[in-house]
Amino acid sequence: MTIVELAGLRVVRGGRAVLDGLDLSVGAGVTGLLGPSGCGKSTLLRSVVGVQRIAAGTVTVLGEPAGSPPLRDRVGYQTQSSSVYDDLTVLENLRFFARVLGLPPAAADSTVAAVDLGSHRDAVVGRLSGGQRSRVGLAVALLGNPELLVLDEPTVGLDPVLRRDLWALFNRIAEAGTAVLVSSHVMDEAERCDGLLLMREGRIIAQGTPVEIKARQGAADIETAFLALVEGVDRDGAA
């Protein structure tokens, strides 16, 4: 089943094409969008959730145009910057956003449990650790049980143990039926994904499962495969 489909997507910012004629499709499970900082990952994700102005092309999500009203409660989005209130508790934050979405208070309680924050539900967000704060933002994105969860570098700045725990959570969410599209610039996180989109300078240079991408490049890990792909793209560009 196709969850996200991009056709000829072009995004121009500051007179420069950040994405130019991008075509791709994303299915169920956990899909990792991996590439260095500044390569266009956030722009692509913003296009998927419908908050990015596009110059050309189409973005279809769950059979609807990206950002259209029918998708309001079908897509959850967590940005890089914190979208929660530091002076409220975990539960107060979730109940506030639940009201904004027109959801009952019970939705906040169930979401707290879903991200393993039950023991911190009454803690003030500003006093939580970085990993716990990321979970609060994730909980907000999960309100209403979205069919697609879009996460923009949710593990940036976290230590390896916290990153491991969050990725385990992403996989549990996907197993429960929510498609997860998550960006990262940390190549070792690729192995935790069902599918991968490797990105460089606004282009998707490879798509497939981690096993498929490594096999095509004869590489033992994704970082080595990515470097081989980059070298190939550079050679083709110079030819």
Outline of the structure:
Keywords: ATP-binding, Nucleotide-binding. This protein is of the alpha/beta class.
Strand order of the largest sheet: 6-7-8-3-9-10
Radius of gyration over alpha carbons?
A: 18 Å
Ranges where pLDDT stays below 50 over 5 or more residues in a row are none
**How much strand content do the residues show?**
25-35%
Give the number of DSSP strands: 10
Task: Please give the alpha-carbon distance between the first and last residues.
Answer: 38 Å
What is the helix content?
A: 25-40%
Order of helices and strands: EEEHEEEHHHEHEEEHH
Mean pLDDT: 91
Please report the number of helical segments.
Answer: 7
The largest β sheet comes out as:
6 strands, mixed
Q: Name the overall outline.
A: globular
Tell me the structural class.
Answer: alpha/beta
InterPro entries: AAA+_ATPase, ABC_transporter-like_ATP-bd, ABC_transporter-like_CS, P-loop_NTPase
GO molecular function: ATP binding
Pfam families: ABC_tran
Protein name: ABC transporter ATP-binding protein
Descriptive overview:
The protein is an alpha/beta fold and 239 residues long. It is built from seven helices and ten strands. The strands form two sheets. Strands 6-7-8-3-9-10 form a six-stranded mixed sheet, sandwiched between helices. The protein has a four-stranded antiparallel sheet with strand order 2-1-4-5, covered by helices on one side. Helix 2 packs across helix 3. It is globular, with a radius of gyration of 18 Å. The relative contact order is 0.17. The model has no long low-confidence stretch (mean pLDDT 91). This is ABC transporter ATP-binding protein. It comes from Nocardioides ginsengisoli. InterPro entries: AAA+_ATPase, ABC_transporter-like_ATP-bd, ABC_transporter-like_CS, P-loop_NTPase. Residues 4-226 form the ABC transporter domain. One of its GO terms (molecular function) is ATP binding.
